[in-house]
Amino acid sequence: MGSIRSTYESDPDMLEIVREFAAELPSRITKLEAHLAAGELRELQTLAHQLKGAGGGYGFPQITELAASLESALKQGAAAPVVKDRASALCELLRAVVVPEAR
Amino acid sequence: MNPEVPNPNRVLVIDDSESIHKLVIARLRPEGLEVFGEVDGERGIERAVADQPDLVLLDIGLPNVDGFEVCRRLKEHPATRGIPVIFLTGTADTESKVRGLDLGAVDYVTKPFDQVELRARVRAALRAKRLQDILEQQSHLDGLTGLWNRRYLDQRLESELNVARRYGRPLSLVLVDVDHFKRVNDDHGHLFGDIVLQGIAEGLRAYARRSDIVARYGGEEFAILLTDTNLRSAMYVSERLRSSAENRHFEARTEIVSVTASFGVSCTEDLAAELTPEALLKAADLALYASKDAGRNCVHLYRSGELLLATGNPNALGSESGEGR
After folding, report:
1. Within this chain, do residues B73 and B207 fall inside the same structural domain, yes or no?
2. Position B317 confidence tier, pLDDT thresholds 50, 70, 90
3. Nearest CA to CA, how far is A96 from chain B (Å)?
4. Identity of the residue in A17, A53, A61 whose CB atom sits nearest the CB atom of B111
5. Fewer beta carbons below 10 Å: N end or C end of chain B?
6. Residues B205 and B279 placed together within one structural domain of the fold
7. Do A50 and B111 touch (CB under 8 A)?
8. With contacts defined as CB-CB under 8 Å, which chain A residues touch B30?
């Protein structure tokens, strides 16, 4: 996967908080993977829900899209492999996010 | 105690995600609002009660107490009932929107939100809140004079009496009645009578202290609630108000008219009866009637069952020393 950049990087009001958001993603990935491994589906759903709500707002509509897909799988009680696939796809996307340079 | 200048609007964000707080703060920056946040429903309610924001942006999917419950409680609590709520919802389903609106929310924004839309919805909610605040204030004002009205004075009398009882602080009440007002109306017409009432009201407001609550109590009668004020201090204030009324002149068509007013003063420290709004009002009313009987344009005090003519001279209150504010 190529690198993912926020569509708001050039917005001076947004740059600082986009940087913070992007910089925090590795810790979210760690949490996502830990909850997935432990079968903690409620916690996983909360994380997915938060990423869905915030992603697009920070200029990452793809995050909202994949997080929504994970959340809906969890909501519907989808089979474990489906949840695992969608969580992995989300984590892969998050890893591709680039922290913009400070200006 | 007069209508206040509005401060910048304050917005409380209740959302379990700090990322959303930061986003909302950044996106609302152009509106010049003060934005602050809580991540938990219970804390959010406490914050709303304590800090009285002008608007609450409320997430539905909160842990523990969910957004619907928070909204229900905000709308139930007298201190937060009037604060508009906009739901920030991650779930765009109709059922959630309807449920939120039926619980008393004014609007909703779906996350991820469009910044332009968020600002427009926030502006709309704040506009409505401003009108609501004005209406509420006007329902407490007297239309002719701009003073507080009787309903407001009665409410404040009740609550200030509770404060006075609890902390043992004196509370005084002054009743004022314009002398021979019927004659003014008969001689110069009702429009002129209104001008006189407005002038008297202006004088009362100008010569009362900032903390005094000045109301039109009905017809040509006014009432002033003086918090943290003993009978002696209330007497001085009343004497000043009386002389200001006497020195005010009104231009009628063919002549200059001056009017006078009679005053009755009571104080919680000098009631023979239990401390109730009725007892305080009755005592001031008795003192007012004593002023009328004594020839008008004077101040009488009710002191433990006695009615005393105040002259502005401290000796009128006997030999006690010590002076209030």
Report:
1. no
2. low
3. 19
4. A53
5. C
6. yes
7. no
8. 13
Task: Identify whether B2 is part of a domain.
Answer: no
The domains of chain A are located at 15-95
CA pair distance A18, A26, nearest whole angstrom: 14
Q: Which residues are CB-contacts of B258 (< 8 A; sequence separation ≥ 6)?
A: B246, B247, B248, B249, B250
Using an 8 Å CB-CB cutoff, list chain B residues near A13: 26-27, 29-30
Domain A15-95, CATH: 1.20.120.160
Tokens 């929310």 belong to which residue? Answer: B105
Give chain A's largest Cα–Cα span. 45
Tell me the pLDDT tens digit for each residue of B39-57: 999 999 999 999 999 999 9
Of B19, B26, B61, the CB nearest to A54: B19
Which residues on chain A are in Cβ contact (under 8 Å) with B114?
none
Find all residues with CB under 8 Å of B311, minimum gap 6, and list them: B239
Tell me the C-alpha distance between B215 and A100, whole Å: 61
pLDDT reading at B312 higher than 70: no
Q: Are B202 and B306 members of one domain? A: yes
Whether residue B133 sits in one domain with residue B200: no
Instruction: List the domain range (segments joined by +) for residue B112.
Output: 10-138
Q: State whether B58 and B169 are in the same domain.
A: no
Domain assignment of residue B323, yes or no:
no
A21, A57, A61: residue with CB nearest B111: A57
The answer to whether residue B224 scores a pLDDT higher than 90 is yes
Quote the minimal CA–CA distance from B58 to chain A in Å: 13
- Is B112's CB within 8 Å of A57's CB? yes
* pLDDT tens column, B177-223: 999 999 999 999 999 999 999 999 999 999 999 999 999 999 999 99
pLDDT in tens, A24-46: 999 999 999 999 999 999 999 99
- B220 as an active site residue: the answer is yes
Total structural domains in chain B? 2
Q: What radius of gyration, in Å, describes the C-alpha atoms of chain A? A: 14
Q: Sort residue B304 into left (φ over 0), alpha (ψ -120 to 50) or beta.
A: left
Domain boundary among B138, B171, B199: B138
Catalytic residue, candidates B38, B220, B239, B269: B220
Q: What is the pLDDT of residues B113-168, one digit of tens each?
A: 889 999 999 999 999 999 998 888 889 999 999 999 999 999 999 999 999 989 99
Distance from CA of B60 to the nearest CA of A (A): 11
3 state DSSP class of A6? coil
